[in-house]
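S1.2 Input.
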Amino acid sequence: MGRRTEAEKKIYQTGTSGWRILTWGMLFVSAMLIFSGVIGHMDPPYDLTVIPSLTPQPTAVSSHFDETPDSRQITVGLKGWHGIQLGIFTSLEAAQSQAESFRARGAAGFLWQDGQRWRVLAAVYEDKQDADAVREQLRDTQQIDSYIFSNEPREATLALTGLKGQLDLVEACFQCIGGMPWEIQKMSLRLDRQETDAREIAQVLEGLENRLNELLLLLKERFINPGHSMILQMTSLLEKWRQSVHELAAGQESLALLAGKIKYVGIEMMHSGQEFFEFLLK
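S1.3 Output.
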C-alpha cells in the first residue's frame, strides 16, 4: 500500500513596497500534502501505489499583482523516468572516475546518490521502450553493459489559501519544476538524433533562462519577506536552475559534448526537483 503523509505549511508575507497595507496582517498559504508512493530510491520489487503524474498546461502569471483573497487545490508532481545506469558503486571515487570517462564520450555521467551507493547515469527517458532501445544499442555497437534504473512518479494535492497573485505564481513555479527538466531532456534527444543545431539550442536555452528570470523576479516582488521555508527552498531551486541554464548557453563545446552536458543538467534538475518534493514532506 502507498504511504500517505499530511503536512501543513504557512507562508508569511509582510511589507508594502508600493502596495496597500494589508489590514489583516499576515498572509497565509497553507498546504496540505497528500502523497501516494514511497519517497526514496529503491531497487525492484517496489511496494507502493503510484498515481500517474499529470502534464498540466502552464499557468499564466500576470505582471499585475492581484491581491484578492483566494483558495484553491492544485495537483503537483514529478514524472517517473527510466535511466541508463552504467554502474553502481559503494566508492565515490570509483563512481566519479567512471562518470568522468563517460562524460568525455558524450554521456551525462551523472552521479545519483542512493544511500551509501552512487549510480552512474548516462541518460534518462520518460518511455521505458526508448531506454531499452538505447541500452541494446550500447550493448550491440559499443559493448557497454548497462542496467535500467527506474524512478517512480510521485504526486501531491495541495490546498492553498492566500492572495490570488501569490497562488498563481506558486502554481506556475510548481509547473516549472515538474516540466522544465523534460524540456531539457527532449532537447538532448533532438541533439542525439541530429534534429537541431547550435543556433536553435541557444534560442531554447535563452527562452528557458528568461522564464526562470521572470519567475524569480515575481517571487521577489510578491513575497517581500519570504519567511516561509517552502518559498525560500523554491527560490533557491530556481536560482540554481537559472545558473545551470546560463552556463549551458555560454558554453563553446562541440555539439557532441554539449549533448552530454544538456543530459547532465536535465538529470540534475530532476534530482534537485525530487529533493524539493521530498522537502515538502517535512
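S1.4 Remarks. The chain has six helices and seven strands.
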